[in-house]
Amino acid sequence: MVLVAFTAGEEGEWSVTSVAPVTGDPLPAAPQLAVREGPAAAAALGGTHQSAAAWALAGVTSNLRYTTRDELKQLVPVSEGLGRPAATRAALIPIKKSAAWWALSQDERLSIISTSQHVAIGLKVLPAVSRRLHHCRDLGLGPGDEAPPFDFLTW
To answer: Known InterPro entries for this protein (predicted)?
Structure first.
């Protein structure tokens, strides 16, 4: 697992061109977005950079919890990594699931994802579009900590 921080503010390697919430309130406007991984993510979340940020979100990469073996066999040969030179545009999609979603068992959630054709739709845009899911739900759940505002961040 790798910690990844997304901080929006006056600095960052990505220019923010639009914010389009589907439901809920939008994140505060900011001109730039910085993405940091590993120790650099921890520093971005705990240092002076966060206090200057319009907002900061964090998640961790993890095992593929919502992908079957057969789907993985289809995805791997046509997927390209993030951060390649040809990747000049990006989207950050924060996702909050309902309590009803989390009350489902893992196999029930996987069944919903599978029947939604999520992977089939993704295969249509690969390799041009790369994406990675970051899990946020377990971050910040220590004694006295608030839960993160989102359950997943898709980048």
So the answer is: Dimeric_a/b-barrel
